[in-house]
Amino acid sequence: MNAMKWSPAVTAATSTRELAHPSCAEIRLEGVLHALSDPLRLRIVRELAVVDDELSCSHFELPVSKSTTTHHFRVLRESGVIEQNYRGTAKMSGLRREDLDRLFPGLLDSVLGAATAQAARLGDN
Amino acid sequence: MNAMKWSPAVTAATSTRELAHPSCAEIRLEGVLHALSDPLRLRIVRELAVVDDELSCSHFELPVSKSTTTHHFRVLRESGVIEQNYRGTAKMSGLRREDLDRLFPGLLDSVLGAATAQAARLGDN
DNA sequence: ACCTTACTACGATGGGTATCGTACGAAGCG
DNA sequence: CGCTTCGTACGATACCCATCGTAGTAAGGT
């Protein structure tokens, strides 16, 4: 879907920095569950949930390289879990709470609750 | 333990057919989400939920080979989602509802509800 | 203009996993 | 005792995916 080579000509500059998001109709439960099944991504989602606001990618201190971080954010965005947009040099990410709650009522909250419960059970970490 | 060419001798028979299950303390949220993120496995779990009983593996008519079916049931069992035991030649599978509800309250129900909602949204299939 | 910060794209790599076919083992039935 | 049904184990294959490093683009500050 983004394999285009993008013509080196004009390039309106602003249009380049648009990010593709799935519409609500395109969001699949299996994709959401898969996105949330990675420890790093679940951690990102939990942080986004507690601040209940958009955060820049660089706010997260993840034990992986920057390119890997980019990869995880893309998985979250393409599965419909988060929404991303550029603000200056920063790329802000926020949960698609309303969309998810409408599509899958209670799912996000129970996953977040389960993650918190498990973190407590395992001594946070 | 059984890589041998098969010694035709004693072979206690009953001890062979025990299945390993994770204890509650060993069940990980990420593992559960991963197990549920596969369409086939989600379908199995949904069927187990509606009948609210144990079902034999062969009851499911899945569009994959028998060995693949075995694989998916094993993933579900090793992640802690289902419980399995032999009954005669059949292998019965049932949801570990109580364990999951205790570990992750509301999670299973919201996933099942989300799956049902999505099935309705996509025209069942 | 330059430099810094922030993020991306690409290619590579290693491990995971979904799939299959074949061959075999265990229970039950005739 | 055969035969059937049900499921497993194993090896192979092909694809997915998490990870990295390098090189590059975009926006903003000085």
Automatic annotation (TrEMBL), chains A, B:
Transmembrane segments: none annotated. Coiled coil: none annotated. Pfam families: HTH_20. InterPro entries: ArsR-like_HTH, HTH_ArsR_DNA-bd_dom, HTH_MetalResp_TranReg, WH-like_DNA-bd_sf, WH_DNA-bd_sf. Gene3D superfamilies: Winged helix-like DNA-binding domain superfamily/Winged helix DNA-binding domain. SUPFAM superfamilies: Winged helix' DNA-binding domain. Residues 21-115 form the HTH arsR-type domain. Keywords: DNA-binding, Transcription, Transcription regulation. It comes from the Bacteria. One of its GO terms (molecular function) is DNA binding. PANTHER family: TRANSCRIPTIONAL REGULATOR, ARSR FAMILY (PTHR33154), TRANSCRIPTIONAL REGULATORY PROTEIN (PTHR33154:SF12). This is ArsR family transcriptional regulator.
